[in-house]
Amino acid sequence: GLILGIESSCDETSAAVVRGGREALSNVIASQIAVHAPFGGVVPELASREHLRAIVPVVEQAMAGAGVAFDDLDAVAVTEGPGLPGALLVGVSYAKALALALGKPLIAVNHLEGHIHAVLLERVLQPAETQATPEHGQPKLALVVSGGHTHLYLAQETHHAWTYRNVGRTVDDAAGEAFDKVAKLLGLGYPGGPWVDALAPFGDARAVPFSFAQVKAKAHRRADPVALHPEEATYFSFSGIKTAVLRYVQTHDMEARIAARRQAMATMPDASPRRDLEAVRALCDQESLDLLASFQRAVVGDLVRKTFRAAERYDVAEILVSGGVAANRELRERFTAEAAAQGLPVAFPSLKLATDNAAMIAAAAWPKLITSEFAGETLTAAAGLKLGS
Ligand code: ATP
Ligand code: MG
Ligand code: FE
């Protein structure tokens, strides 16, 4: 079962060939970070234009990298949503045309389901999983923690068909959004999450005691417009801590230092945390590093606490943590430590598969190929698509 996956929901154009939902033969990712960085965030019009420019060469590279011909494919899978409408449309239109031309089935994938299935990629099959899938397996708890989402889902597989129930979400900012905003506030580059991750170990996480109130979702249980089960749903909130960071910056006269750093960062638009960590660390005073470390500690602590509490409530077999923020080292360490303490397994995608990529889209499409859940010719981009019930 060879599936070509295509992803274009945000600022990555990606194509991948995945065999059997598990083995990525190729996974080409064209990032637009350098295009959007000068604007400090994704510019939708530029994103669509860049996807249009990249889609054909990226698919060709993915096919060549996998060493397969278009005729060898069993299906073409594409991200249907959620995401930026114009960006999604590039991938959907291309995938529809390709599937039609090849006479192969087209599979529509929810981006969030893709993030969840990234965890299954590259994972060695457990003995229990090689047997026929159980009729009613114990559910898994999936935390999708990314630039646009901080959502908890109960994920259940029954005869290869996956179903999801949304049992938690953020009431305001997503965790990745908070990372990006706090990084920006402190004069660091876009996207900010990887910078915070890289710089936090140089700061003292106990320096700024953010209180639980700063990550508490107030009164949303009653007012929740989403049909979560109000008595048991989990709510995250990350806009309060962002405001607390802003207030700290103002009351500690950090603005001049931050402005200087922002100016220095602007001269290195394609700086990367891996290559340029020393240079950027040299731009950071200790107070900034302490603030970043404290922020990260508070956010990660909240994610760990609430996710494990939900895992206990639903008696799940395993926790899956995915999405861009799942690349965060402190998050992985804290989840892993808590999993060991509680005797409940936790799994992550590899670092490259945590952020947006097409291999996860092809992986999520695999069960749909088995169950013949194909998209029709009317498939269109669904910017506001939700996952599950
Ligand atoms: P969504 O999946 O919700 O539609 P998205 O596709 O933009 O949003 P991803 O690409 O999955 O999100 O993740 C990007 C987000 O992850 C950004 O907010 C980025 O800052 C954050 N991120 C990436 N790496 C790290 C890291 N190491 N530590 C913390 N945050 C990170
Ligand atoms: Mg992205
Ligand atoms: Fe994503």
Automatic annotation (TrEMBL):
Q: Could you tell me the Gene Ontology terms of the biological process aspect for this record?
A: proteolysis; tRNA threonylcarbamoyladenosine modification
Question: What NCBIfam families does the database record attribute to this sequence?
Answer: gcp_kae1 (TIGR00329), T6A_TsaD_YgjD (TIGR03723)
The protein's enzyme class: transferase
Q: Which Pfam families match?
A: TsaD (PF00814)
Q: What is its EC number?
A: 2.3.1.234
Binding residues for Fe cation = H111, H115, D356
Amino acids binding substrate? V144, V145, S146, G147, G148, D180, G193, D197, N328
Instruction: From the UniProt record, list the reaction(s) this protein catalyses.
Output: L-threonylcarbamoyladenylate + adenosine(37) in tRNA = N(6)-L-threonylcarbamoyladenosine(37) in tRNA + AMP + H(+)
Q: Tell me the cofactors it needs.
A: Fe(2+)
**Listed name of the protein:** tRNA N6-adenosine threonylcarbamoyltransferase
Which family, according to the similarity comment?
Belongs to the KAE1 / TsaD family.
PANTHER family per record: TRNA N6-ADENOSINE THREONYLCARBAMOYLTRANSFERASE, TRNA N6-ADENOSINE THREONYLCARBAMOYLTRANSFERASE, MITOCHONDRIAL
Q: Where is the Gcp-like domain?
A: 24-362
Classify the source by domain of life. Bacteria
Say which species the protein is native to.
Answer: Acidobacterium capsulatum (strain ATCC 51196 / DSM 11244 / BCRC 80197 / JCM 7670 / NBRC 15755 / NCIMB 13165 / 161)
Q: Which UniProt keywords apply?
A: Acyltransferase, Cytoplasm, Hydrolase, Iron, Metal-binding, Protease, Transferase, tRNA processing
Where is this gene product found? Cytoplasm
Any GO MF annotation of the entry: tRNA N(6)-L-threonylcarbamoyladenine synthase activity
Q: Name one GO cellular component term.
A: cytoplasm
